[in-house]
Every structure is written in structure tokens, then in C-alpha cells.
Amino acid sequence: MGIRIIKTALATIAAIYTAVYLGLEPPLGAGILAILGVEVTRMKGLKSAFVRFIASVLGLFFASLIFTLFGFQIWAVALFILITFPVLSRFQLKDGIVTSSVIVFHLFNRAEVTTGIIGNEILLLFTGLGWATIVNIIYMPKDEHQLGFYRSAIERSFGVIFQEMALTLRNPAHVWNGGEILEAYNAIEEGALRSVRNRENRLWGQEQYWSTYFEMRRQQLESVQQMLVELAFVFEKFPQAVMIAELLDQLSSDVKSDVYEGNVEERIFELAQLFRAMELPKSRDEFEIRAALLMLLRELERYISIAKRLKKRKVMSSELQP
Questions:
Q1: Which of the residues 123, 233, 247, 277 has the least number of beta carbons within 10 Å of its own beta carbon?
Q2: In what helix (H) or strand (E) does residue 312 lie, and over which residues does it extend?
Q3: Would residue 129 count as lying in a domain?
């Protein structure tokens, strides 16, 4: 917010001085247009300037027709609003309504429609929106540090979640408040929002890493929540539970890896084969617990498949050879 205020102040001052130098009237109008044109990202700034300019030109066109036909009456302004605003909204130009109104009110204040006045208003648009665009492009705060912070928070929370799940499988009496689930959710949502802004600040080349990363974690968190549902049915310790706990221990460290390792996926396949070869349950309780453990293993497989689809693959050194 502080950076945006500074950028707005610089764009406003530059626009007013430029308008004075060019002899535009009123020069403060250029400052108002600059204030309206400063945005939070480069891409949004360019789109905003384009929309506001087109909307203002259309507004000038309709206002010139209305004022020429009906005169510069106050009720004619209401007629302008009734006709122009729906048209701008219909063509996805509603963000330019305020800018268009500023320009039209200048025209109304001059009480005449001439090519000189129209040209003056067009130059005011170029001056105000131009300086806002220049300031937007020159500097935008970098989000890389903050995105890295959210990534670390997510991976830390995931690591704790897997460790707590492993403890519960080894000791069903273990109590955990699940606070890391909420922490991971908040970090994912905040990180996803910042990744959008980070992408919109890149005019040349699209940055996909962060948006892909947070989408992967969002899907994986849904999988983790389903694991916890299955874990709630495990109220006794079984050998299969200890085996799955070892997988979760591995995941608690693998979660920080940038690449898909594939080790856990192989182990999941081996455990699935091993579970099939074991004796059938001898009681209803054992049946329900082992069924929950099997579902937990399947959910782990889904978690891994998300990483396999969205993470970078581990490339063996031999594959790098020409």
C-alpha cells in the first residue's frame, strides 16, 4: 500500500506538470486521471489504461452528440449517464466510467463542443493515463521473497502433519490438535493470491512455477484431509499401520523437494501387494481398521500422483548426456 501511494504521488505530480507545460486545461484534470490509472500490477495497469482511454473516448462521443442536440443543460448530464453507462458496461468498459465522467464534466464546464476542446481532453487522457502507465511499468514490488515465505510455511506444516499422522498410527492414543491444517490452508490461499499478482507483473514471458506450486499444494491438502478422515477409524495398532507410518516419515522430509523422487510411490505399490498377501481379518474391528488403513494407503497414492503430475521430474545424470 505504501509503495502504491508513492507511485500515485509521483504520477500525479508528473501529469500535472506535463499538462501545464503543454498548456492543457485544466491541468489538475491530468492529475486526477493519473490517480485513477495507478494499479497494483503492470498487466492490470496496462489493461486499466486501455479500458479507461476507450471508455473516455466513447463518453466524449456520446456527450458531444447529446450536448450538441439538447444543449448544456443539467438534465442532459442525466441523459448522458442513462445512455452511456449501460453501453460501457455492455462492452466490458465499466472500469472506465469514472474516467469518462471526469472528461465529460470538463466538456460540460466549457459549455461548447469544438475540435480544440476535444483535442485538449484527449491530450489530458494521454498525459494522466500515460504517466500512470509509465510509473506502473517502471516499478512494481517483487513478491519472490514473500512467495518463498509461504512455501516454507506450507512445507513446514505438511511435514508436521505427516509426522503427527505417523505418531498416531504407531500410537492411536496420541492426541494432536490439527492446527497445522489451518496454517497450511491459509498459507496456500495467501500464496496463490500473491502468485497471481507476481504473474501479472511480468510483461514478457509468463511465470508459471508459483501458480502451479500453490495449485499442487491445494490439491494435496484436500488429499491430506481425506487421509485424516481415514485415520480417525484407526483406534488400534496394527503392523500395517506401522508400515504406513514409515511412509509418512519419508514424506515429511520429501515434502521440501523441488522434484518428484518416486521412492514413496514404489513403496506404496510394494505395501499394496504385501497387504493383499496377508491373512484376512479375524474380527469386525480388525476388518474396519485394516479397511481404513487400505483407504489411507490409496489416498497416499493420490497425494503422490498429484506431485507426480505437477512437480518437476528427477532427471538421472545419464539422461543429460547427448
A1: 277
A2: strand 312-313
A3: yes
- What is the rounded distance in angstroms from the CA atom of residue 114 to the CA atom of residue 120? 10
Residues 141-152: tens digit of each pLDDT: 667 788 889 999
How many residues in the chain? 322
Is 39:45 a contact under the CB 8 Å cutoff? yes
pLDDT tens by residue, 30-61: 999 999 888 877 777 888 889 999 999 999 99
Q: How far apart are CA 185 and CA 41, in angstroms?
A: 25
Residue 260 sits at φ, ψ, to 5 deg, of -80, 115
Residues 6+ apart with CB under 8 A from 312: 258, 259, 260
* Number of domains within the chain: 2
Q: Alpha-carbon torsion 30, 32, 37, 40, what sign?
A: positive
C-alpha cell at 58: 466513447
More confident: 1 or 139: 139
CA proximity to 257, closest of 218, 213, 196, 296: 213
Residue 38 lies in a domain: yes
Cα separation of the two ends of the chain: 50
Question: Is the preceding omega at residue 281 within 30 degrees of 0, hence cis?
Answer: no
Q: What is the pLDDT of residues 186-212, one digit of tens each?
A: 999 999 988 887 777 776 655 678 888
pTM, to two decimals: 0.67
